[in-house]
UniProtKB/TrEMBL annotation:
Pfam families xref list: TLD
Protein name: TLDc domain-containing protein
Domain TLDc: 1-158
Annotated organism of origin: Mytilus edulis
Domain of life from the UniProt record: Eukaryota
Gene3D superfamilies listed in its UniProt record: P-loop containing nucleotide triphosphate hydrolases
Family named by the database record: Belongs to the IFI44 family.
Length: 451
């Protein structure tokens, strides 16, 4: 078994950058402290890490090489020393053990070294600082001025970017049928703040064409209907498939009773067309009627049929969820990103609750199980990236997998979708609490509230 523990491996991976697997290739106490054995086991194995464990003919080019210390006198004090002369990073000689730097910075041993009963008194030498930046450290602080070691190990380093993390980057209860039923019950019994006398929270879905806005409604609708539905038109097209503004009801399957929230679907964002700041203002303020037909030649105005002249709190949007396709996060057209940021600024000025919901595709293709989504370093990286792009807290970035190719419901897909919806409804409540504060402070009039 490797001697380097999880803490040591984590520290090494931070220095190397990324997540890695460490496979023991050579161990002096197991294989003998023999240079030829070291070469036969370690040559041509790619990147390696050499570890010297203590009680208290050609150079290789490697600009990523570094020396390191993990412990000093038994205390964990990690520090790495980057190469300064990449052309002399490592020295390969059939009679030498692991050797680093010209001069050499660290020359471990020559030929064969026998165990003296307590340690291996390596017959090499050190000349730290020749090819590596030692940051003020020296032979005494690195190895107590000698090369007496209890063992010498060499590990092959393999990058494992898709491997699940040991601990989730976002904690949730254990995923099982009980948790799924609890999520469904919480959402079925959800009610907006009773003090405001609003029957339904209103969630507006905004995003690029094909991001998954309509599919999100279909996913939630399917979960509560008990089977896969496609009530909202969805799919892949050059321009938005949504041409009509819809305020969808989600109904409880057994009773058919509308639930206490609506999902508002609108046309997608595009570089030169689609929903704009003018339209978003009318929608968020509650002026636009259900089933309004978008017409590029007829901008929204008080003259359109069904225009709500004096919208009340119950007509307004309480949370805006930006929906993004995670596979396009790094290739979003600049104009689309500018429009998203412009809408975000306008919404912040209006005080709407902002959420950043995104559809992350190809989880299966990447070998990631849905119930392990919060253990995935890939998804964690996308969440971090979207957080940076949008300037939102990471807790506002919610992974989502919509039903798309499935013919039957999947508990894990449903669980992930309901975790997202539950948080979106909580964000809507945040907006309502802010509204209630203003009302109680006398900064709003009671007549602005209507059931």
């Amino acid at each position: 078994m490797p001697e380097i523990n999880k803490v040591d491996q984590k520290q090494l991976s931070e220095w190397i950058t990324g997540r890695h697997k460490y496979t023991l290739l050579f161990k002096a106490s197991r294989d003998g402290c023999v240079a030829t054995t070291f070469h036969s086991k370690c040559n041509n194995k790619g990147a390696t890490v050499t570890v010297l464990l203590r009680n208290a003919n050609a150079y290789s080019l490697d600009n990523k090489a570094f020396l390191f210390r993990l412990y000093q006198d038994g205390t964990f004090k990690p520090v790495n020393f980057p190469v300064t002369g990449a052309g002399n990073a490592m020295y390969d000689h059939q009679s030498y053990g692991p050797t680093f730097g010209g001069g050499h910075d660290l020359y471990t041993f020559n030929g064969t070294v026998a165990h003296d009963g307590t340690c291996y008194p390596l017959n090499g030498s050190t000349s730290f600082g020749t090819s590596y930046n030692m940051k003020g450290e020296n032979s005494n602080s690195i190895c107590n001025g000698n090369l007496k070691v209890t063992d010498l190990e060499v590990y092959m380093v393999e990058e494992i970017p898709n491997a699940p993390l040991e601990n989730p980057w976002r904690r949730t209860p254990e995923w099982n049928l009980k948790f799924l039923e609890e999520l469904k019950a919480n959402i079925e019994h959800y009610k907006p703040l009773k003090e405001l006398k609003i029957q339904q929270a209103r969630i507006l879905l905004v995003g690029q064409v094909g991001a998954g806005k309509s599919s999100f409604f279909n996913t939630i609708n399917s979960i509560f209907r008990g089977y896969i539905t496609s009530q909202a038109c969805s799919g892949n097209a050059e321009h938005s498939l949504t041409t009509v503004y819809r305020t969808y009801q989600v109904r409880n399957g057994p009773s058919g009773k509308p639930m206490n929230f609506r999902l508002h679907d609108t046309r997608g964002l595009e570089a030169d067309q689609g929903i704009d700041g003018h339209e978003i203002s009318y929608i968020v303020d509650g002026h636009l009627p259900d089933r309004h037909q978008f017409n590029p030649s007829l901008p929204i105005s008080p003259e359109i049929p069904g225009f709500i002249t004096s919208p009340q709190l119950s007509d307004k949007i309480h949370c805006v969820a930006f929906v993004m396709d995670s596979s396009t996060v790094d290739v979003l057209p600049e104009k689309v990103l500018e429009r998203i940021k412009s809408l975000q600024t306008r919404l912040n000025q209006k005080g709407s609750a902002l959420d950043q919901s995104r559809q992350s595709m190809s989880y299966n293709d990447r070998g990631i199980c849905f119930w392990r989504v919060f253990y995935s370093p890939i998804i964690q990286e996308v969440v971090d990236r979207v957080s940076q792009i949008m300037g939102l807290p990471r807790a506002h970035i919610l992974p989502l997998k919509n039903y798309e190719s499935e013919m039957e419901l999947d508990d894990n897909v449903s669980t992930l979708a309901l975790i997202t919806l539950q948080q979106v409804l909580r964000f809507a409540d945040d907006y309502m609490y802010n509204y209630l504060d203003l009302l109680e402070e006398g900064k709003l009039r009671q007549e602005n509230i209507r059931e």
